[in-house]
Amino acid sequence: MTSLLILVIIAIVAVLAIKDLRMRFITRPVFSFFKKVLPPLSDTEREAMEAGDVWWEGELFRGKPNWDALHAYGKPTLSVEEKAFIDNQVMTALTMIDDFDIVQQRKDLPPELWDFFKREGFFALIIPKKYGGKGFSAYANSTIVAKLASRSVSAAVTVMVPNSLGPGELLTHYGTQEQKDRWLPALAKGDEIPCFALTGPEAGSDAGAIPDEGIVCRREFNGEEVLGLSLTWDKRYITLAPVATVLGLAFQMKDPEGLLGDKVNLGITCALIPTSHPGVEIGPRHNPLNMAFMNGTTRGKEVFIPLDWIIGGPQYAGRGWRMLVECLSAGRGISLPALATATGHVATKTTTAYSYVRQQFGMAIGHFEGVQEALARIIANTYQLEAARRLTTTGIDLKVKPSVVTAIAKYHMTELGRDVMNDAMDIQSGKGIQLGPKNYLGHGFMASPISITVEGANILTRSLMIFGQGATRCHPYVLAEMETAAMEDQDEAIERFDNLLMGHMAYASRNALSSLGNALSGSYFAGAPVSGDTRQYYKHMTRMSAALALTTDLAMLILGGELKRKEMLSARLGDVLSQLYLGSATLKLFEDNGRQHDDLPAVHHAMQTRLHQAAKALDEAIRNFPSKPVSWLLRALIFPLGNHFHLPSDKLSSELVQSMLKPGPARERLTFLCPDFDGDKGGIAEVEAAFEAQYQCKGLYKTLRRAQKEGKLKVKLPQDELYQAALEAKVISDEEFEALNRANVLRVAAINVDEFDSL
Fold it and tell me: Which of 255, 289, 430, 490 is the most exposed place for a label (fewest CB within 10 A)?
């Protein structure tokens, strides 16, 4: 038997080592198989993949992440100019915001806030300085939007739209010099208000299917006949459209008369059109869940524009899809994640404070385990959101276009933001549902589905984009193999494929052995760049990365093009990648913050959740794998001893909450996007002041309880009567009496809600 096994091994080695044998018995048959099963790469998919860059997600997808590379990306920081803008202009803007007035009464920003945003350059954060803009980093842009969102989603959206996908960004990257000189200074000064029209009744998440058309033709313009486009469009959900003075428009460009060449369908193109141009229609406003930011429709029928109104000029005709993919990948990694992170900061700041000052059954509600379970999720998810915000903007500021990473950020961060808001509303209960000037949760809760739906519906982002694009784009061999399979010269293709196949086989074997070895050893032999409390998380993340790479290989091999239609399976595999990305962000934030010991409860909670979610998604993908033999093989390699990644323990949740029910550096780091300031009109300063006053009196409350146990004071007295009795019994001093009364006044104000004579 041993001799037979040795002979088999020798035969396999010979076939692999001798090229002629390998080509005949392995390479050619496998190449023929690949050509049949590998999904064809459409022009649209190719453009999307070529437009995006592979960044950290590529390391996670390949089974052996280089953790030193993650740490080497650097810590995001604000420049002196950016910090000064945030400390001055942004803080001034916050004092001007009364979100109840904006949303419930005006249905718009007040004129003075509009003027301030324009005058101080809030609409020019991404426009280069040489055109009068700020030229700020992605991290600064994100921080500004998030701080505004801590007081008003409507104000934040108004600022974020000109600084994400729109004319400003498109012109900066692709505009002709004439276009830049004409538009960018005016946009920077706020003389022009931009919007960008992409979505229509028949094209939402499938932006490539827009039916709006621009037909190449000759017509008169400014007194002479010129070559141009006859545009017909119908767009909706366009933010800032009702007040825009310049319209960015995406459309399908066609040349049926061959005026530009022999190609009829030129593809998606982007143009810039003044809204005052004849034929441009700006329709009535939409009402996006009662939020006050401007959102509406735009239409046009056979509107003629000259060709040089195409962004980038006529040479960019048909190149709009790539432009949009590149700009979307940056925008969706900044704006919407900023809103979600602001939600976390607000929820953490207010809910920890409220849980400390709100009492039921004679005890602060933050000490009830049922409340602690939800409050721990809020705190850990906020740490996660802040970590992902920083890592994602770091990538964008490194001048990469990480389209898969930004899709992960958009989907998972907006979902986490919704989860955080739901938990905060559950804990604050009646305080959260009664709208009024004192309510700091209600409008954010109402607005949370907006982020879920824009820039691609989350369901489709999860099921189609993250894994669908990531698997092909990030894999070290598959994209090259697909390109090889499409080559016309078959001899050259076979030769190239042979080299790729040998590398692919070694890659797959390594991931299979790594998955099994790590599963059997508890990731003992996996590498980690640090020691201490977070060391094991790096090891487990490496294990999950190898398991994802192995499962991806087998899924693509067995299912081929059918994998595109197995959306539930691909979504779960995308979830594994996403959880690994979020976990990477958490570990990096801990390092960037200097490994602060008081951050560890949040880090442990977040990392244990990420690993649990990754393992759960992988487990479910294996269980639902269409081929049962492959499913059994994957389970034997990845979970031979079962899935033992669990959610955080009750003890850890309680420890995390207790660490945050007090003022301190850890709480400051998790709430700095929700700043304190004089003149706060939204109720946040009110509950924070009550929290701080109550905490300062914590020793006095213990003194009162001890006096009650000793019989010196009656039990169950109203607060003001208890303090008076304690003063008369000389249990407390006059100064302590004043401190307790002040804290009680602030407490009552914080837990009270608004009342109205009429609505």
Answer: 430
